[in-house]
Each structure stands twice: as structure tokens, then as C-alpha cells.
Amino acid sequence: MTDGASNLLEIRNLSVTYGSGASAVPAVRGVDLTIGPGQKLGVAGESGCGKSTLALALLRLLPPTAKLTGEILLDGEDVRTMKWGRLRAVRWAGASIVFQGAMHSLNAVHRIGDQIAEPVLLHRHATPAAGRSRAAELLEQVGLPAARADAYPHELSGGQRQRVMIAMALACDPRLIVADEPTTALDVMIQAQILRLIERSVAEQDIGLLMISHDLAVLSDTCDRLAVMYAGRIVEEGPARQVYDAAEHPYGRALSAAFPRVGDLASRRAPRGLPGDPPDPSALPSGCTFHPRCPVALDICAREDQTLRPAGPGRSAACVRVGSAVPAQEQPL
Ligand SMILES: Nc1ncnc2c1ncn2[C@@H]1O[C@H](COP(=O)(O)OP(=O)(O)O)[C@@H](O)[C@H]1O
Ligand SMILES: [Mg+2]
């Protein structure tokens, strides 16, 4: 496709394995993803599919037990070979991360204004006064009164804490924000507000977004493109609306049925669910890893691994039924 230098983020054939030998956990297996300037990509998948591992790999935040192969280019620069000083700077100004559960990421004993100002002081070499004024500006940008700068994390609601996390992520004008389940711990109304805030923040400053969620509806509401992840691989990618409304991969279809539209409160309170669980990465099924749960699996699916293949303009899917005729002798499993 395009060369690395013109993309904000380019992930090539990325694999991450925790541990080694018999207990090795291949959490991410050969992922390719690209985000251009200002683009918003959503990565969807159930718990355990490797989404957070992917996010952590981007900024080298994985534990030492994790072995990584492949390439991760941020603005054309390989994250894997960056020196520590450069990496620290890049973690704020290049790409910053918003995690689920802001309470654990904020320091309980420091006022939130100081925590927001900290990266500005460190990486911008700002004066304390300039740091405070930047913190006040960021608080207002995320919809909190500047006076809340003096509050401690426990004095804020979950939604307010997530706003603080977003303010921190925006502090050094990053070019990319990685948001891992940013609204999962929040109730439906607050979830919608935080999504609008993320959307507005990235649009105003033309920031790229990699948003991760198990909830396909949340992602399709916010992102331009969607990638569906299963058992450590991308099994479908394409324009957000198309993937949400008419996924090519049976797993994408199941996910979108399980997570109805964000505005549709009644059905969101009673999602249709998706039977079974994703496989344990250390004991993956043969063939297509989704075949044991797939409602339309054929004999061939238990034997042959499937990789991404073209599925229409700007779309791809890793399913035997996509793009070519299924051999006539194949029977439903
Ligand atoms: N530090 C770790 N050590 C060993 N295995 C891990 C570690 N972190 C995650 N895993 C395993 O890697 C797989 C993917 O996990 P994760 O990336 O957290 O998925 P997701 O974010 O999609 O829920 C899971 O099987 C999980 O148990
Ligand atoms: Mg996760």
C-alpha cells in the first residue's frame, strides 16, 4: 500500500507471544494495520482476543516475558528500536494511551491538575505556571471546570475520571491516541458523552485514533474503519458502517448481532449474546480458529487455516466463503 513515512501508524506482521515452550501464549499472530493522519480505526473482539496486547505493543509497554516480532512504525519510526529517552517522549507527543478503568491509571494521592500538568512539565519543559494553565485549559476542553484541578481522583465520578485520562492523553498534542476500552466501565449515558468527547477531541486536532472495544456498535459509531480481531488475528477489515451492518466474516456478524446500536437502549440492555468463548491462545483449534463456534462452518474449515482475502472495495475477510466458490463436496460441519 502506502509507504511507512506517510502513515501515522503502520503495523506489519506483528506477533506477540507471552512466555515460551509448552506454556507459550501466542496472543497476537501476524497482524497488519495502518492508520493515516486523522484516521480513526476501531479494533473489535471479545475478551482474550489480543486487543490490549496489540495496544501495549505499540508503545513497548508489554512485560519482559512478551516476545515480539514484526514491525511497528509510528510516523515512519520503528518503535522497537527506539532509545528509552525517545520512547518516553513519543509516549506522550507521538501516541498516547487512554485505558479502561481510569482509577487505576491515576495516582490517588496527587491532585488531578498536577497529574495533567506533569507530562507538560516533563516533555515541554514548561514552567509550573504554564503547566497549571495548560491543565486548566485541558480540563475545560474535556468538559470539566478548571477548578476541579484541585480535586483528588476519588472525589470524581467514573466518567469524570475518564475525562481526566483523556485530558492527560491530549496534554502534549499527540498525533495518535490509543484508547483501550475507554468507555467499558461506564454506564450507557456517560459512555455516549465520553465517545462524543473522544470524537470531538481527535477531530479538532486532526489526531489519529486507534480505539479498542469488545463492542462493535461503539466502534462503528466513532470510527472510519473497523478491524475485527479473533484469537490474535484480524479476521475482517473494512469501512466501519459496512462491517457493522453487513460483516463478511461470521464472527463479525455474530459480534454485531451481540452488540446492538448505541442509541438503541432497549436492545443494548438485552444483547443477543454470542454462544461460547474465544479459544485459549495456547490451545488453538485446527483450521479456522472460529470454526468450532461458526454457525456456517464447513468440513474444510476444520482443516484449512484462513487468511485475509479481498472482500470488496477496501474490505477483506478471512473466511473460506469470501471471494471464491466453496468446493461442492464440502459439507456443513
Ligand atoms: N502478561 C501476560 N502474560 C501471559 N498471558 C497474557 C498476559 N497478558 C495477556 N495474556 C493472554 O493473552 C491473551 C490476549 O489477552 P489480551 O491482549 O488482554 O486480550 P483482550 O484485550 O482482547 O482481552 C489472553 O489469552 C490473555 O490471557
Ligand atoms: Mg483488553
Written overview of the protein:
The chain is of the alpha/beta class. It is 34% helix and 21% strand. The protein has an 8-stranded mixed beta sheet, with helices on both faces. Strand 1 (9-18) and strand 2 (25-35) form a beta hairpin.
List the helices and strands and how they pair.
Blueprint: E1 9-18, E2 25-35, E3 40-44, H1 51-58, E4 66-74, E5 77-78, H2 84-94, E6 95-98, H3 102-105, H4 112-124, H5 128-141, H6 158-170, E7 176-180, H7 188-204, E8 208-213, H8 216-222, E9 225-230, E10 233-239, H9 240-245, H10 250-258, H11 265-269, H12 299-303, E11 309-310, E12 316-317
Parallel strand pairs: 3-8, 3-9, 6-7, 7-8
Antiparallel strand pairs: 1-2, 1-4, 4-5, 9-10, 10-12, 11-12
The chain binds adenosine-5'-diphosphate and magnesium ion (MG).
The ordered H/E elements are EEEHEEHEHHHHEHEHEEHHHHEE
Report low-confidence residues grouped into runs of 5 or more.
Answer: none
The helix tally amounts to: 12
Distance between the termini: 37 Å
Strand content: 15-25%
Task: State the strand order across the main sheet.
Answer: 6-7-8-3-9-10-12-11
Small ligands present: adenosine-5'-diphosphate, magnesium ion
Look at the helices and sheets and give the structural class: alpha/beta
Give the radius of gyration.
21 Å
As a percent range, the share of helical residues equals 25-40%
Mean pLDDT: 89
Largest sheet: 8 strands, mixed
Number of strands: 12
Overall 3D shape: elongated
